[in-house]
């Protein structure tokens, strides 16, 4: 079933998942195309971003953002075209970046929507390296990681849209950069295409030993996207005064209970104390949204100059979104996963 | 046995403790008074500071500072008088703050030694509110905690030399300050003398519930001195954007193994992420030593004005030091524990 101009396909949250989202989590509905009121515009979503944070919005556990309500449309960043507009600064045919959700059509009063004009190059990149994941990488690394030339930066999720960008910025800033990714193919990409100094496969036997051997000078900055066994291997390698931007913990988003003991919470705190480390969690728009203009200027320059490479994994069809999202949480994505809703 | 001018009593590290230090950990020796070489001075220790960090120096586990070697004198901050000096700026009779260790006499070339002159008021306070613990409190709170008026500050170890000072500075800066201390008498002191808004007894039944009830607006800054069950109660009360200076973890210094599970390391990291918290460990002279002059000026003003109160627990006799130190780790001290080596 393709996008049409006669109705609105949409995924609503049918049930809060216990553990991994499954066939009962989201429900595909066909509804009327919404009618914009005065001061609104109608957007036709062309690209839908899939991002790990969406797992959190499916749960009603306390978190930094309110959960999606049951039977409401699943949230998500989109690149869309304006169908009709009663919002100043937006006209029919404009390409925009919005928060249009898992559906074909969305209404907006323009709040938080960025107009990319009539003919943007690579409009979907606004969901990746030039958008939220790019800002996440840039701000988390520069503001919390505070890299200095000659330091060692380790990046989890190194082939993903955030990690790939973090590592490439680290190289530009003069760091030695070691990535961690899942599988030999991703690791080759991280080294050969993205230009990291090294990349360690966390799925390979002896991962912790291999990682340690690749880091004779320890770790000054660890950009955390993953948690779990990857962090277990990283923890003993952290240097005095290490900085750890905590951006994501994808390995534990589907967890339904705490892992077995011993309890290492005090061990982590003791390490933070003894190594005088800084660990800081952040949510990009809440903490660093004010830096967006500076980011956009610097990053678009780097992308144009070819200093920052970007890989997309484009998947056709809204109906592919639920399975693609589950795969994303399992580490199956290779590059920024985007759903194309319409040609 | 009292301090004499004929020999040097000294405690050396006889054996690294497993768990709590015991009678085999330190050995009291009688030795010659050391003879200063050219460019050195001889110090007679009058006051010896007891501090929780000393437990770490007894171990050879990796830490921020090298361990005390076996059969070497146990390290410690001291207030001393100069017996003889070949160091510029120091003359016989001067009072100094030094790192003279658990002994009657020490040599120094003047490095890191502060001259307090001939007749300082309350010379032993240089081991507390006007010295390392005071700087720890002041720098950890202002540099990492970054308190803003109206915020809620919670201080563990509230009757100790660091915690008491942290809370009083918090009040000066306009925070609501809630202390945590062990026992009703300490809590009364924290409220009535130190002027905290509230103080919760962690030894009382229902501690976690009482703490939660005392903090209807949650916690913006948690100054960590303790860890363990106190942190367990604090964790769910932390607000978005909370700052946690990790200054000490006294509850776990004697631990010989990790606690039973479940493993809450990922839970802590998830909380840091979701609440966008900052957790930072620090070692005061390494991280903030350069701020000492600013600290000394501000703190001595506050102490003179009576805005910062200070409680010492003076214990007579070097031979009391080992037991007094074990008690300190158990939370038995009430105020800054200092050993007086000589009248």
From TrEMBL, chains A, B:
Entries under CDD domains matching the protein: PGDH
Pfam families linked to this entry: ADH_N_2 (PF16884), ADH_zinc_N (PF00107)
Coiled coil (residue ranges): none
Annotated keywords: Oxidoreductase
Domain (Enoyl reductase (ER)): residue spans on this chain: 23-339
InterPro entries the record matches: ADH-like_C, ADH_N_2, ER, GroES-like_sf, MDR_fam, NAD(P)-bd_dom_sf
Region (Disordered): 1-25
Superkingdom of origin: Bacteria
SMART domains reported for this sequence: PKS_ER
Annotated PANTHER family: PROSTAGLANDIN REDUCTASE, PROSTAGLANDIN REDUCTASE 1
Name the UniProt record assigns to this protein: NADP-dependent oxidoreductase
Native source organism of the sequence: Paracoccus onchidii
């Amino acid at each position: 079933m393709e996008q049409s101009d006669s109705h609105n396909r949409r995924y609503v949250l049918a049930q809060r998942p216990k553990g991994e989202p499954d066939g009962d989590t989201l429900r595909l509905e066909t509804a009327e195309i919404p009618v914009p009121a005065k001061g609104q515009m109608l957007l036709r979503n062309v690209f839908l971003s899939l991002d790990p944070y969406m797992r959190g919005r499916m749960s009603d556990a306390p978190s930094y953002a309110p959960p999606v309500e049951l039977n409401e449309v699943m949230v998500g960043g989109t690149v869309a075209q304006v169908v009709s507009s009663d919002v100043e600064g937006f006209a029919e045919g404009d390409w925009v970046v919005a928060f249009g959700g898992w559906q074909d059509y969305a209404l907006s009063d323009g709040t938080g929507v960025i107009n990319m004009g009539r003919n943007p190059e690579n409009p979907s990149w606004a969901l990746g390296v030039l958008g939220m994941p790019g800002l996440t990488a840039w701000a988390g690394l520069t503001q919390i990681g505070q890299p200095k030339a000659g330091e060692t930066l380790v990046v989890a999720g190194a082939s993903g849209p955030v990690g790939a960008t973090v590592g490439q910025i680290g190289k530009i800033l003069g760091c030695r950069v070691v990535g961690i990714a899942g599988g030999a193919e991703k690791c080759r990409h991280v080294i050969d295409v993205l230009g990291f100094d090294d990349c360690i496969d966390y799925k390979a036997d002896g991962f912790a030993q291999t990682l340690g051997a690749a880091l004779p000078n320890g770790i000054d900055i660890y950009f955390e996207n993953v948690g779990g066994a990857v962090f277990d291997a990283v923890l003993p390698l952290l240097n005095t005064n290490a900085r750890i931007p905590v951006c994501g913990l994808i390995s534990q988003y589907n967890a339904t209970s705490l892992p077995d003991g011993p309890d290492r919470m005090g061990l982590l705190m003791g390490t933070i104390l003894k190594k005088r480390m800084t660990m800081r969690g952040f949510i990009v728009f809440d903490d660093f949204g004010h830096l967006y203009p500076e980011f956009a200027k610097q990053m678009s320059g780097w992308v144009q100059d070819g200093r920052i490479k970007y890989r997309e994994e484009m998947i056709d069809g809204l109906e592919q979104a639920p399975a693609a999202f589950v795969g994303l949480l399992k580490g199956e994505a290779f590059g920024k996963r985007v759903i194309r809703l319409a040609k």
